[in-house]
Structure to design on (490 residues):
């Protein structure tokens, strides 16, 4: 940091001034537009999921089985769209709308699998498959344990 | 012996080294940009049949370096050093290109400032009498950079508006002691400045103080004004970094006029959705080796100041919360 330099800084701006200036000149995220597209795409993915559930139910599966089969179908779809290089293009516009549904989870597993396959199946795919999804699992499972314990003590 | 070091951090050469040739190879997206026609070679896609992004990047560099050698018309046994660098861990693109070319190799790392750094060091080697010819080249690749610094390439997500797009491309030049071509009369090597930016999605902001510092020292060392240059081009500050550099220069009493621009702003069109502009070692290298060299040779530009801009962080340092140190190296090029 300046002040510790052997030579004094040439520019006539203090780090504090500079950080204020940076804040002022850095474009703000377009929250309204991002939220709109996240809502539309996220909603569309969920609506598609519901259509698939209904189709499975109409084909004779029970309610529970129909949602499990639909979840598996959505994972397949997310993985497929990742593999053919489309999902990241959707994610560019949809943001959280395509990350939060289960298709996004599929994307975050398949993308590292594709990327790290070149480093081999053990230290590449095996070791790095969960680089993106890992935190989701760690905190998702931890939360479910806490919620489970609360539920157990409550009853 | 006459000291060639002038002022704070500038070197003025006794016999200005000559840029005998330049060559650029880019990916399809760069070719679709406004400078598309200025590049020597365009790849049909980012991998061009290679088995990994990394090998593809190394191949880009190899092709650029071979192209520069061929155009210079210098026998390879008269090229005494190859100077190269890139963004990948242990600069593997350069190491692997050097393995193929078989020339005495000095690996450089100045992050995205490496082209200017290489031109400066190469010029010193030549004017110092340590080499007859020096080959300088750098590369960057969008997908190798994504997976090293950010996320797997197929991961869906949003980039911030201040984020930049790593250029897929390599540029190379051959420097010699005499001959026809633009000359390098002086260089100003930069120092590392860190004004506390921690956002790796805003690298222009991290580098701007170092660029302004180098420009100010350069002008002061040579007693010049910004208007003494037809073009002052920073390497890859992008739109946020350019705005900040202008502000910092203004506040430091040396405002920059229309002569100032940034290679990261020149290389892509606004419509290409790259957000703040291009980045990577290849950004300044291909803009210089293509467009700027052609404009110098055509006499449209007489004197240019190219300031390579580098963000000297790593994914590890960023995760550990360290701010991003920046550096700028300036090279004067005269037609």
């Amino acid at each position: 940091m300046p002040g510790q330099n052997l030579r004094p800084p040439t520019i006539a701006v203090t780090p504090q001034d500079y950080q204020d200036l940076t804040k002022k000149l850095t474009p703000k995220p377009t929250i309204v537009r991002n939220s709109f597209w996240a809502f539309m795409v996220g909603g569309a993915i969920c609506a598609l999921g519901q259509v698939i559930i209904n189709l499975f139910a109409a084909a004779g599966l029970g309610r529970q089985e129909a949602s499990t089969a639909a979840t598996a179908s959505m994972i397949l779809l997310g993985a497929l769209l990742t593999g053919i290089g489309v999902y990241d293009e959707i994610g560019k516009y949809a943001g959280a709308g395509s990350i939060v549904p289960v298709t996004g989870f599929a994307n975050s597993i398949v993308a590292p699998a594709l990327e790290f396959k070149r480093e081999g199946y053990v230290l590449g795919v095996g070791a790095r498959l969960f680089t993106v999804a890992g935190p989701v699992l760690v905190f998702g499972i931890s939360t479910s344990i806490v919620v489970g314990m609360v539920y157990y003590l409550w009853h | 012996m006459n000291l060639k070091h002038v002022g704070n951090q500038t070197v003025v050469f006794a016999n200005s080294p000559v840029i005998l040739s330049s060559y650029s190879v880019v990916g399809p997206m760069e070719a679709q940009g406004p400078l598309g026609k200025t590049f020597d070679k365009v790849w049909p896609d980012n991998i061009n049949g290679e088995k990994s992004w990394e090998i593809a990047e190394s191949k880009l560099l190899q092709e650029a370096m071979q192209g520069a050698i061929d155009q210079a018309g210098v026998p390879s046994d008269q090229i005494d050093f190859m100077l190269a660098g890139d963004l990948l861990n242990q600069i593997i693109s350069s190491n692997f290109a050097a393995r193929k070319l078989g020339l005495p190799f000095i690996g450089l790392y100045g992050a995205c400032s490496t082209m200017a750094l290489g031109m400066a060091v190469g010029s010193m080697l030549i004017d110092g009498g340590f080499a007859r010819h020096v080959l300088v080249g750098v590369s960057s690749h969008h997908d190798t950079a994504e997976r090293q610094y950010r996320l797997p390439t197929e991961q869906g997500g949003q980039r911030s508006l201040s984020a930049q797009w790593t250029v897929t491309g390599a540029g190379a030049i051959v420097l010699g002691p005499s001959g026809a071509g633009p000359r390098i009369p002086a260089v100003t090597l930069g120092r590392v400045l860190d004004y506390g930016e921690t956002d790796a999605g805003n690298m222009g902001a991290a580098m701007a103080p170092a660029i302004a510092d180098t420009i100010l020292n350069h002008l002061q060392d040579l007693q010049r004004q910004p208007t003494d240059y037809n073009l002052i081009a920073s390497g890859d500050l992008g739109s946020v970094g350019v705005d900040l550099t202008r502000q910092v220069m203004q506040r430091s009493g040396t405002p920059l006029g229309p002569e100032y621009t940034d290679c990261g702003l020149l290389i892509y069109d606004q419509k290409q959705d790259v957000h703040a502009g291009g980045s990577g070692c290849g950004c300044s290298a291909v803009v210089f080796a293509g467009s700027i060299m052609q404009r110098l040779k055509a006499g449209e530009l007489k004197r240019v100041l190219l300031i390579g801009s580098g963000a000297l962080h790593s994914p590890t340092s960023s995760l550990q919360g360290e701010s991003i140190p920046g550096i700028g190296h300036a090279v004067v090029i005269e037609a």
